[in-house]
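The instructor's notes for this session suggest beginning with a concrete chain rather than abstract definitions. Hand out the sequence below and ask the class to guess, before any prediction is shown, which regions might be ordered.
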Amino acid sequence: MGFSAAARLFVVCGALLAAAATLGCHQIPKGRAAVDAVRFRGVHEVSKSDLSKKIATAPSPEFLGLFEGIVYDYSLFDPYVLQKDLERVERYYRARGYYQARARAGRVVYTSDDHVRVYVVVEEGPPVLVGDIRVEGIDTLPEGVRRHVLRALGAAGLRKGVPFDEDHFAEAEWHILHALQDDAYAYAKVDRRAYVDLPDHTVTAVFSVTPDLPSTFGPITIEGLGSLPEDPVRRALDMRQGERFSATALDYAQQAVLDLGVFTSVAVVPERSEPPPLDRAVPITVRVTPTRLHTVRLGGGLELDVIKTDLHLLAGWTDNNLFGGMRRFDVDFRPGVALYPTRLPNLQSPTDLLPEERFRAQISQPGFLEARTNGYLRGDFDIYPLLITSNLPPGAPVIGYREARAALGLNRVFWKLYADLSYDVQFNSPFAYVGLLEPDLRTALISYVDLRTTLDFRDSDVEPHKGVFLLNDLQFAGGPLGGEPEDVRIQPEGRAYLPLGSATLALRAGTGLLFPANYGGSLAQAPPGQAPPGVDRATYVRDLQLVYFRGFFSGGPTSNRGYPVYGVGPHGVVPFLLPNVSQQIYSQCLPGTPGATTNPSCVQPLGGLTMWMASAEVRFPLSSDFAEVTFCDSSDVEAKTADYQLSPHLSCGAGIRYKTPVGPLRLDVAYRIPGLNPAPGDPDYPGDILGLPIGVAFGIGEAF
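After discussion, reveal the predicted structure:
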């Protein structure tokens, strides 16, 4: 007697809860009460979630958003703490311009002997609005400086006719001072005053400027280098004594020294004296803390998913000052073995051990060509099996590649923009781990120019809470550069992070377009995976191989989590992955052949020329170490260029995060929504786990 999908899901959830219970069930101390909820009444003009973060009384954290007292301690009710919280609420309102706001505890409701709900009632009162904004003391400054100051004031959040916000008031002062210092007035001072008229409910904001005289950079001193050379740091600073003082130049200089990758901290500090010197020269002190110059990395790991299982070791070496000059040299070697065909969910015993290795060496030269441009030379040599599906039947050949790559490039940071331009050459030689090698499968030589750019406005690159991140990868392959494929490949992507109180709404959307000039025609002219009439087998195999290297795939931990890697997109005949290369096997996969769409030999991932993806994720912090996420992923890959189809492959699910120094350790489970995904029996159906249409993703770092 079998179990339904719902029953199996119930069993899985039960197992998760049992595991959580073993981590710790907490008790409420006798005579105390746990806080189940904190609710606000009468709050309309400010964010309730922001208020919640300002008070100490908080609801008990819930494991998986459902269960109190499991894994996390209860939050206990304290009436004295609540009284202080009411004062904090009133102070928060005052800072937002509501000077007459009053907060009181409406009710403390016991839902049982040891559980309470707290209701806080707020009487907001009328706001105090910004009436007039004056900047005094700039009349004698040059016209360009005055305009700069007024533009800086406009960039702040202080506006006439809106509630007076203390944070915006302080922000405006900073913008004015920074604008003056950017125009060489290093010793300028700005005082802010607010005149509140409570009967009229208005406030006048006044900024008094004492500009002093224009300044220059004085002597530049670097401290904390130890045995490191000074010249590369001075070159990265790109500042000279006697040059016009600029606050923005100091910010850029600090980031440029950090980008050398040799220091754990850098501070570029202008040493302003009182009274100012007669020449108005500002000495600059650069304080650095070097990182370790030499690092050895040793470790190992296990990769286990629905595609493959492998065991590997890792050895690496970094020298941050190779031959002096702060050149960075990295070398990494990862030998391993793939256990074939062991994989989730069946974990069958391996019949073959497939040796594999990945080797990379890179040397980087700071200050190449100009002060803040880095040059690099990188080389890779990899040997790996081409395992892209779980559908290969017993006896299928296992194809591998020897891959050599070299790249020569430059990268630079321009404010928030990072640009990397490189010339890459790639050489791929196929061989057979198991079985016979397809006779039409040839060595591929690929060369291309690659321009990668990012524009980063996030508040953090590890755990972003707000901001925008834009990236693009543009490649030109072949032609005068040499190599077999000729194409243009572009892959833009945008990400946005919106704060929802302590939670974060993360959004992502991207696309990929490949425009091949001398290959791919046999894929676009026929149903997925079927060589069209008049196209010979060798051409079809060549097109498939080049699309594997240049085309797009979707699915996996950083893409669509309801699918395995390579799982989303067209599927069909891949001759070099068939059990043998006989015409009889090939003919079984032709269109109209009974069972062709369900024959495992006929439904391998093909890749495509058009890709799009979209994701939405809400991240809820549970404690200082744990967080919970709820997400939906959607994506599609099509065989033709600029061919966008409404095939959403929508999968939604939840996950758990554990914070580590290198990023969150995450586990996600995604459920493929019925009706919006391939059904069992379709060529691109990815299979089940525990009889359920789900995908499991495990990794380090957020999905995006």
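Then share the key points. The radius of gyration is 31 Å. The longest helix spans residues 5-23.
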